[in-house]
């Protein structure tokens, strides 16, 4: 177990920008996720931690040890690559044993450690199979076992579930989390799937275009996104434009396109939001915060016409036209009649659920 520090790390590929000024400290034993769209720099950052790329600028430390230009095999990290990178002509046993052989571990110890790890990832009895005789999920577990068998201080996982079907993905997600908790390994996980990131991580780093946008717990990232990109990348949200028409210490009043004024809390603002009277501001409102209301007038009640109505059994989803904007809402099915397209509807937006994204 070890903490990981990236101290103002940059990576450029010739003129192309890889990542810019990544500055983070990952605690020992933490489950930390890099999240962002394709090409945002997740793999590049992970490869620098593993030692497959060296930073153009900045420093990397494991605990107090500087490793910025230490080669991969001297770092004691275990990595599962985006495409697994298994040796197809070798057996499961040989694949898992490989990292121990290059470290000159004795034969008897290799056998013992490989068998123990195969049990851990539930691959007992598969030792003699060749990689091309395995399913995608089994190959994924071989890749995980190969990374774990060297007893790494730091486990690096690059989209390890991307080739699995939905059910296996969920099972393996649980498995990885179980292993991480059991072994207490500092784990850095790369994904572009926000649900995966939210459900597994202690903290998440959201990236876009090689630049870190926000680092925080799933709860912070979801409820206090620092900008529009984070707000819309993490789950669904309604982004509304408005103009500040009044404010005091606690509350901010914003006129939206329908002409109506909504009241929000000043403390629910990203550092970039400007909330002086006359400023333009973006409101972020999560669909699950919006609730159907039997009232048609009142504080933060908006009225509109249902454009889309979806009943999924557990939930009711509406898209409602409110002025020039649309409002997505989602509520748990409590058995009340479901509104249909064209129906008038009143919706309540609680003031504590309005976030000013800047
Ligand atoms: N070896 C390389 N040479 C030149 N450019 C590279 C190299 N590796 C990555 N890049 C560029 O750096 C940027 C970040 O790439 P990276 O592979 O880190 O993205 P990613 O977030 O892992 O994306 P994905 O989700 O598609 O795997 C991209 O613009 C990519 O084209
Ligand atoms: Mg990648």
TrEMBL record:
Which family does this protein fall into? Answer: Belongs to the ABC transporter superfamily. Spermidine/putrescine importer (TC 3.A.1.11.1) family.
Domain of life of the source: Bacteria
Domain ABC transporter per the UniProt entry, residue ranges: 4-234
Q: Name one matching Pfam family.
A: ABC_tran
Kindly state which reaction or reactions the protein catalyses. ATP + H2O + polyamine-[polyamine-binding protein]Side 1 = ADP + phosphate + polyamineSide 2 + [polyamine-binding protein]Side 1
Q: How does it assemble?
A: The complex is composed of two ATP-binding proteins (PotA), two transmembrane proteins (PotB and PotC) and a solute-binding protein (PotD).
Enzymatic class:
translocase
CC per GO annotation: ATP-binding cassette (ABC) transporter complex
**Can the keyword Membrane be found in this entry's annotation?**
yes
InterPro entries from the UniProt entry = AAA+_ATPase (IPR003593), ABC_SmlMolc_Importer (IPR050093), ABC_transporter-like_ATP-bd (IPR003439), ABC_transporter-like_CS (IPR017871), Mo/tungstate-bd_C_term_dom (IPR008995), P-loop_NTPase (IPR027417), PotA-like (IPR005893), Transp-assoc_OB_typ2 (IPR013611)
EC no. given is 7.6.2.11
Q: Which molecular function term from Gene Ontology is one that the record holds?
A: ATP binding
Q: What are the UniProt keywords, alphabetically?
A: ATP-binding, Cell membrane, Membrane, Nucleotide-binding, Translocase, Transport
Q: Which SUPFAM superfamilies match?
A: MOP-like (SSF50331), P-loop containing nucleoside triphosphate hydrolases (SSF52540)
Query: What PROSITE patterns does this protein map onto?
Result: ABC_TRANSPORTER_1, ABC_TRANSPORTER_2
Supply the source organism's classification: Bacteria, Bacillati, Bacillota, Bacilli, Bacillales
The protein's organism comes out as Brevibacillus gelatini
Name of protein: Spermidine/putrescine import ATP-binding protein PotA
Q: What does this protein do?
A: Part of the ABC transporter complex PotABCD involved in spermidine/putrescine import. Responsible for energy coupling to the transport system.
């Amino acid at each position: 177990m070890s903490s990981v520090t990236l101290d103002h790390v940059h990576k450029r590929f010739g003129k192309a920008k890889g990542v810019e000024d990544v500055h983070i400290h990952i605690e020992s034993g933490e489950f930390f996720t890099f999240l962002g769209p394709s090409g945002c720099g997740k793999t590049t950052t992970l490869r620098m931690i593993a030692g497959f790329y060296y930073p153009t600028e900045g420093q990397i430390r494991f605990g107090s040890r500087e490793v910025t230009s230490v080669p991969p095999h001297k770092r004691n990290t275990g990595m599962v690559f985006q495409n697994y990178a298994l040796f197809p002509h070798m057996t499961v046993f040989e694949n898992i044993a490989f990292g121990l052989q290059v470290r000159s571990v004795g034969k008897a110890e290799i056998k013992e450690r490989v068998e123990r790890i195969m049990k851990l990832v539930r691959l007992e009895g598969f030792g003699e199979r060749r990689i091309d005789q395995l399913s995608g999920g089994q190959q994924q577990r071989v890749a995980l076992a190969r990374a774990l068998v060297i007893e790494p201080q730091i486990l690096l996982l690059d989209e390890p579930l991307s080739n699995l079907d939905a059910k296996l993905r969920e099972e393996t997600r649980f498995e990885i989390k179980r292993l991480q908790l059991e072994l207490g390994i500092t784990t850095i996980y790369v994904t572009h799937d926000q649900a995966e990131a939210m459900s597994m991580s202690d903290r998440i780093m959201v990236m876009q275009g090689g630049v870190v946008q926000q680092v925080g717990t799933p709860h912070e990232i979801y409820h206090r996104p620092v900008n529009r990109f984070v707000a819309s990348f993490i789950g669904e949200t309604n982004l509304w434009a408005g103009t500040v028409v009044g404010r005091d210490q606690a509350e901010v009043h914003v006129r939206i396109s329908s002409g109506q004024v909504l009241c929000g809390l000043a403390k629910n603002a990203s550092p970039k939001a400007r909330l002086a009277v006359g400023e333009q501001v973006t409101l972020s409102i999560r669909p699950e915060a919006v609730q159907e209301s039997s009232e048609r007038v009142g504080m933060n009640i908006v009225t509109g016409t249902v454009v889309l109505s979806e009943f999924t059994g557990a939930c009711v989803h509406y898209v409602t036209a409110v002025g020039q904007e649309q409002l997505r809402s989602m509520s748990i099915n409590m058995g009340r009649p479901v509104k249909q397209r064209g129906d008038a509807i009143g919706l309540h937006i609680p003031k504590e659920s309005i976030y000013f994204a800047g």
